[in-house]
TrEMBL record:
PROSITE patterns: FHA_DOMAIN (PS50006), OMPR_PHOB (PS51755). It comes from the Bacteria. This is Transcriptional regulator. Residues 28-80 form the FHA domain. Residues 122-227 form the OmpR/PhoB-type domain. Residues 122-227 bind DNA. It comes from Paenibacillus oryzisoli. One of its GO terms (molecular function) is DNA binding. It holds the Pfam family FHA. One of its GO terms (biological process) is phosphorelay signal transduction system.
Length: 232
């Protein structure tokens, strides 16, 4: 059977980050496991409804429906209306129960051994709200009352991720915003390696604290910043 589309679990117990679910069936039910019901993608979080969402194949398109879940569903930060069709697109980020469970959707099926880059957000279900403020004009962060100056590349990376906060930012968009001085290579892409980008993300996590900027990386897709930041 040809692969149609897939889901990657970014966060959601009991699955490991990077778990791949193939959407070859006409319907895929997603919800909380119980004695009476075992959904196709079954989570254990009590805030997930037993019948939370369903994804259907409709005319070669994956269409998501919230089934009247108690704590709601979001796609790319937009709250869904229950029982309303929402066609899915590549790189859509689906959040269940206020973001306690996060799923990445793609029509580009990858090997099921695909792993997501290490995510600090997978350590626990709730995202900690740390005392963090960003001053764009001063190019500095205030973490736990301590002022930390941002380098140019740190500033540009955090800025572009913050502009699309809680949404996936494609790799090429990040490269163009963070390295505007670079020229496109022979293939038309900016001469910025993935290792260089990963190293910058690593430096940001190390400098500001691994829990300050919850930056997740989906290989081949891009980066996403999950947070509730204050900026000025």
């Amino acid at each position: 059977m040809d692969n149609f589309a897939c889901l990657y679990v970014v966060r959601g117990e009991p699955y490991r980050a990077g778990t791949c679910v193939n959407l070859n069936e006409d319907e895929t039910n997603i919800g909380r496991i119980s004695q009476e019901l075992t959904p196709d993608l079954a989570f254990t979080n009590a805030f997930i409804s037993r019948k939370h969402i369903i994804i259907r194949k409709e005319q070669d398109k994956a269409v998501l429906y919230d089934l009247g879940s108690r704590h709601g569903t979001e796609i790319n930060g937009v709250q869904l209306t229950p029982h309303t069709p929402y066609p899915l697109n590549n790189f859509d980020i689906i959040r269940l129960a206020k973001g306690m469970t996060v799923i990445h959707f793609s029509y580009m099926f990858a090997d099921q051994t695909l792993e997501i880059e290490p995510l600090s957000i997978t350590r626990q279900l709730e995202i900690p709200k740390l005392p963090l403020e960003i001053s764009w004009e001063k190019r500095e962060c205030v973490v736990d009352g301590k002022r930390i100056a941002m380098s140019e590349k740190e500033y540009l990376l955090i800025r572009v991720l913050h502009e699309h906060i809680n949404r996936l930012v494609p790799l090429e968009e990040i490269k163009s915003k963070v390295w505007p001085e670079r020229s496109p290579g022979a293939a038309g892409f900016l001469d910025v390696s993935l290792d260089e980008l990963n190293a910058l993300v690593y430096r940001v996590r190390k400098k500001y604290g691994k829990d300050t900027f919850l930056i997740s990386a989906i290989r081949g897709g891009g980066y996403m910043l999950e947070s509730d930041l204050k900026s000025s």
